[in-house]
Amino acid sequence: MEKKRESGEILEHMLLEEVKIEDIDYIDPPDEWDPELHQKEPNVPPVLIEEKSDEEGGDGRESRGYSLLAHHRSFWKAHAKGLFTLRALVVRSSVHISLAHESIRNCTEEALLFDALLRNGLCENRSRLSELLGYSRARITQILNLLKLPEGMRRKLLLTDDISEFQLRPIVRIADKGSQKNMFNHLIKGKLTGRQMALFADEKEKAVEDDSEPPADIEYLMNEDVQLDEPEIIPLNDQEESEDEPASGAVVQSSYTSELMKHLKLRGNEWEKRLEIKGVSRIDTEFLKGILKLRTGLYSAAVEILEGVIEANPNYAPAYFYLGRCKNLLGDPASAENALRSALEMLPEEPDYLVELAIVLEKLKRDTEASAFYRKAGSIRKRSRTGALS
């Protein structure tokens, strides 16, 4: 993977502005923050945005003119020292947006940046923001969803850059505040894998929808001998004759969409007429349109369609897979990796997904990781062939 420049290197040649600290609206540090323990961290210029209005904000406080978006630890140290001013990057244009975003290593600060850009009109909508940063619209939404976490959690996340949005995604989904806090504490302590968190979140959602018994506690889940049920997978036979779209929370499996794609062998628009006769859902039809664009080399058009499918059904695993393939073909391996990992979060034993991710990781010069995914895919295929012969 190409080595990223440090945050300070990105901003050091940028024209910074001198801003009064009293004019900056900021998030208070968590109680456990100690400026003495963070003295060795580099002083990266904070990233600010000038708010359009100085009306009272949603937290009841009057806006001070600027909002702190990134590099909170640098700002907190300056504030603790009693400084009156500091040099900061004030985001005012698309050039500033790109520089600010490239300097950010903290997923919560990334969400704060996106929210501020949309709130103040520097980006008119999420589609424009995705174009500017090279992200998918689904990825923009996933990052912004971090702002749904309680304020106390977001403050703690500002202390570390080692936790990713992918790790936090299952916590965002949990409605029960007690379980959410429990999961978060285990994540902070490094005792919970992303897979365990995702399974626990799925069980919690299922219990709420079915009004059933609550799932096992998170400590119980951490026992390696315990296996919670996987998210529901849509069986092919149950969907072929149904006009309904997949149930909320159910994962659409690749074998179902592979069967759907057989209709694309028909000439012209005959496949669309065929699907209409069979009562295939609108979302499945849109998915096939995206596949057609991909097959004809119209990768950007395919991306737009597949992102629409994901927005309509975030559990459509094959849409993430083909979105990752499109991003890879468009020369955006970082976005491809994110889409493919989302697909594998739902279908971790799908060998085609594993191989595609391995190809992307090779492009990112992460050969060790790529080899592991190749081996896993080969092992799954070998087991499948052995089972078929027995």
Topology:
Layout: H1 7-11, E1 17-20, E2 24-25, E3 47-50, E4 66-70, H2 72-80, E5 85-91, H3 94-103, H4 107-119, H5 126-133, H6 137-144, H7 151-157, H8 165-173, H9 177-188, H10 194-210, H11 218-221, H12 236-240, H13 254-260, H14 270-278, H15 282-295, H16 299-312, H17 317-329, H18 333-346, H19 351-363, H20 367-389
Parallel strand pairs: 2-4, 3-5
Antiparallel strand pairs: 1-5, 3-4
Overview of the structural elements:
This protein has 390 residues and is mainly alpha-helical. The chain is 55% helix and 6% strand. It folds into three domains: 7-153, no CATH class; 163-221; 236-389, Tetratricopeptide repeat domain (Serine Threonine Protein Phosphatase 5, Tetratricopeptide repeat). It has helices spanning 7-11, 72-80, 94-103, 107-119, 126-133, 137-144, 151-157, 165-173, 177-188, 194-210, 218-221, 236-240, 254-260, 270-278, 282-295, 299-312, 317-329, 333-346, 351-363, 367-389; strands spanning 17-20, 24-25, 47-50, 66-70, 85-91. The protein has a five-stranded mixed β-sheet with strand order 1-5-3-4-2. Helix 16 packs antiparallel against helix 17 (317-329) and helix 17 packs parallel to helix 19 (351-363). The protein is elongated.
